[in-house]
Amino acid sequence: MKIAAAYIRVSTEDQVEYSPDSQLKAIRSYAKANGLLVPDDLIFIDEGISGRTAAKRPAFMRMIGMAKKKPCEFEVILLWKFSRFARNREDSIMYKSMLRKQCGIDVVSISENLGDDKTSVLIEALIEAMDEYYSINLAEEVRRGMTEKVSRGEPVASPPFGYRMVDKAYVPDEQTAPVVRRIFDDFVSGVPTTRIARDLNNEGIRTRTGKTWENRTVEYILRNVAYIGKISWNQSGKKNRTYDSPDTITVQGHHEPIVPPELFDAAQKRIAENKSKYSKNAHPTHGKMFALKGLLRCSSCGAVLCLSQGTGVQCHQYSRGKCDKSHYIRLDKITLAVIEQLQADLASEDRIASVAQKKKAAAPVSTDIQRKIDAENKKLRRAKEAYMAEVDTLQEYKTHKEAIQKRIAELQGQLQETEMPSDEEMQKEFRARLIDVLNIVSDDSASEEAKNDAFRSLIREIIFYRTSGTVEILYR
């Protein structure tokens, strides 16, 4: 009995006969006729998603990830058509080759019987080429239609914040249009985008998609020509920002502006002035390494504390306007606080015992044996599913069941024989590692990279409480 996975994809342009239910029904019928079992947890569905690129299909990537695991839970992947697998020949060839050669997993189209002779390779390649041509041609037709609509001043995208769609046209929204005008007024009067974002979040105002505001979403509002009655669209099909893409088409629309042209121009002038202060990635603190980089966390929102003003750290989300609590502190001061906390933990027997106990509880002891037990239990469930689906007879089910249960008993015996380190050994090991880290981070001759590596070898994250000026260290 072979276990099969089913991959199902339906994009927005597909017809009813290619619905997920229709594909699954056909796949199950094929599986039953060919002695295959398709468990419910091995059905992967990407609905309403294009097949042009594999990376943007979460269910597909999850299936590929499971295929790479040892042992793999399935031996074959069943598809309604090869076009469901990919409409990009590069992706199709790469993933099929990887599955067949590295994982021993075949990819089968249930409606395109290619046979087993050498000509099947040519036929499969021809089908893939036709699928890719169809996908490219369809994209060009859609793009041509959208370009025509834009040229007539008609919208081709969802309405931006401040508008709603009525009869296929943008209409100012009574609730959110005033917020747009306020954003422009505040910005032109000198209020930073981070402050605008923070004020909107504090008032409970959310973006069009229901998310909190950031400095970049405020800037997107300020750069959007829709608010002065124009329509813009990136004809390349790429989801780049329309305001800085050379492929953008901008025409006069038919909808009512929310912002006067002179206010919009004033906002663009101020944005340009702000951008001119630093070239891209030229901020003096960009990319600088420091000992606690990536470890410090804001106690209010949990975001990472990043370098600020060259000599301190600040909450990343506060800098973007999404956190309303400043966590700024000088870098030398926070580094000293962390070292002092490490020294206090080293001097505390209770702290040593507590951390060691947690590490012991989470220790990946005998994970390989447990993984094998889990795999056998899955086989047991599969055997039952095969019997219930009438793929196996009752006698075959009993034989499989007895063999699997015997193997599970053997593995459980091995698991019980595995010895766990004693509490004293765990405490001794943790204390020794803590001393090693302290020696490195307290050494003035050690580089910031070496200190960062030392901290990371022992610490998962450090929470900084700005109000009390204290830190909480969470060990790995």
Estimate nothing, just give the exact number of structural domains.
3
The mean pLDDT is 82
Number of strands: 15
**Main pleated-sheet profile:** 5 strands, parallel
Q: What portion of residues belong to β-strands?
A: 5-15%
Outline type? flat
Helix content: 40-55%
Gyration radius (Cα, Å) is 30 Å
Number of helical elements: 16
Spatial separation of the terminal alpha carbons: 43 Å
The unreliable regions are: 279-286
Structural class call reads: alpha/beta
Task: Give an account of the 3D structure.
- The protein is an alpha/beta fold.
- Helix content is 49%, strand content 14%.
- Residues 279-286 have low confidence and may be disordered.
What's the short version?
With 476 residues, the chain is α/β, with parallel strands linked by helices.
Topology readout:
Layout: E1 2-10, H1 20-33, E2 36-37, E3 43-47, H2 58-68, E4 76-79, H3 82-85, H4 89-102, E5 106-109, H5 119-151, E6 163-166, E7 169-172, H6 177-188, H7 193-202, H8 215-223, E8 230-234, E9 248-252, H9 261-275, E10 296-298, E11 305-308, E12 312-315, H10 316-319, E13 329-330, H11 331-347, H12 349-362, H13 367-388, H14 394-417, H15 423-441, H16 448-458, E14 459-465, E15 470-475
Parallel strand pairs: 1-2, 1-3, 1-4, 4-5, 10-14
Antiparallel strand pairs: 6-7, 8-9, 11-12, 12-13, 14-15
Properties at a glance:
single chain, 476 residues, alpha/beta, Rossmann fold, Hect, E3 ligase catalytic domain fold, 5-stranded parallel beta sheet, 3-stranded mixed beta sheet, 49% helix, 14% strand
